[in-house]
Design a protein that fits this description.
Number of strands of chain A: 10
Shape of chain A: flat
Number of helices of chain A: 9
Structural class of chain A: alpha+beta
Oligomer: homodimer
Distance between the termini of chain A: 46 Å
Largest interface: A-B, 43 and 43 residues
Order of helices and strands of chain A: HHHEEHEHEHEEEHHEEEH
Strand content of chain A: 15-25%
Largest sheet of chain A: 5 strands, mixed
Chain lengths: 282, 282
Amino acid sequence: METRELRYFVAVAEELHFGRAARRLGIAQPPLSRAIRQLERRLGVTLLERDSRRVALTAAGSVLLREGRAALDAVDAADRRTRRAGEAAHGGAGLVLVTKAGASSELLPKLLDAYAAEPDSVRVEVLLSGIGEQERLLRDGRADVALLHLPFDSITGLDTEELVTEQQVMVLPATHPLAGRAQLRMADVEALPDLPLPRWPLHDGTYPDGPGPEVRDHSQLLQLVALGRTAVVLPESCRSLLWPDMVAVPVPDAPTVTTVIAWPPHSRSRALAALVRTATRL
Amino acid sequence: METRELRYFVAVAEELHFGRAARRLGIAQPPLSRAIRQLERRLGVTLLERDSRRVALTAAGSVLLREGRAALDAVDAADRRTRRAGEAAHGGAGLVLVTKAGASSELLPKLLDAYAAEPDSVRVEVLLSGIGEQERLLRDGRADVALLHLPFDSITGLDTEELVTEQQVMVLPATHPLAGRAQLRMADVEALPDLPLPRWPLHDGTYPDGPGPEVRDHSQLLQLVALGRTAVVLPESCRSLLWPDMVAVPVPDAPTVTTVIAWPPHSRSRALAALVRTATRL
DNA sequence: AGCGGGCGATACCCGGCGGGTATCGATCCG
DNA sequence: CGGATCGATACCCGCCGGGTATCGCCCGCT
């Protein structure tokens, strides 16, 4: 099976429409139809149920969609990491670290400084991603290593080392009635009529329904808190980047947050191993 | 990047010889040379250092070897799993479970029976593999789920659930001087001049040096014990398949063994989820 | 030093396949 | 019932992946 065929199939399976898929791929519709038929013949499996009015995935088709996406990510990763390894020989970045924008604001600079001080450390590029994008970036090779936060991020399929565990605090505008309390309970947090909790994107990029604002990363979030539009429970290390008119109130019964360093399991390069070692020693 | 190019590159990188690699691939040498050059030009990276006497990998080349193997495994997995999903629609096996030959002899039949009794369970094919082959089988799609044994097997990059934890026992011929002891210590086990411990294959399939016999799976192992050629420390559940002239002596200070059920993280099908759920309930 | 052999690169040719356009046939809608 | 939509089919072309022949280089043998 060639990656071209996989790309074609994934496009059709996502669009469920040969014409649109062909346009997206930049080819005409007939070669696309033919390619899918050839793929089906070679696999000996019908992947798509098509009548001239609609296209639907078979059970085998959804298997190939899932597995094919993973395979294409792996191929993309091979491409990108090889290119970067080539550039690195001429002074480019050696490692790409991804973290949620606005998270781990205390840990990250310490880690980067400590690693830079190590003997034969390589340049580390920092990539700030939206919530929930990190796993994809690691899998398709745009990043080599990530800082993730349990229990929010999924670490399935990744190797990890735990770094720090923190209590959480609620971040509020200083003018809010609850701002003076010594501590809060989750029950207090969950239904504030005046300050609805923000909504994070789900795994597929869409947002759940609800009253709160849609949020992509922590920087947006803090700005919305400053504007008095929302309130949010965050790990206590976020204190260092609160704006002057915000306060943080401990929430002892909120789940603790563990920051972990994570990387794809097979890609244990020398530079990555050194970075992980540095991180666990902090 | 096409899988054909990846296969070609991996062949050359493994052989470090264009002629041999071409023979292995079933093509002539010149097209292979040309394909590698094209790949290098498209990536903008030199992958192989070649003079007319020897071929060597560059740093970027070894990155592509590692990542390319993973990508090819993922493509193979997509192919195989799709084919099987197609067959399953016509009554073929729905899941392939792999375990080390001779291990988990008590747990496995219980698991298979319990799962078969579940509503809408699918046919489970059991694949018995040699030591250390399971991870590969899961990654390239020849298996969907594995029974692994910590701390011996690596579970990096896999999702797992713990099933049972056991003490270990030493398996000896009944005639051996130590066979009558109530228990043994690891120190007793490690240097028995008359019964050298067996040697397991390393990750790359080769064996370490040493006096003991080379062993591929547990069936071989027990036969060698019965013949008085070796002795071995195994989880106590192996008692159920001891031959009459063998005894098992507890070794309390040997590491405990945890049996886990493991599967590739992205492939959480309905049938797989049901099997995992059944396993954790046993 | 000279020569032969091994090995990758180059030159050149052919056939198949991936891409295109034109058109058909089925199905749904007004 | 006619037109629109959409996938399938028919057919053609050019490129690229495959082949053979040969070159050029370097090493080792005598």
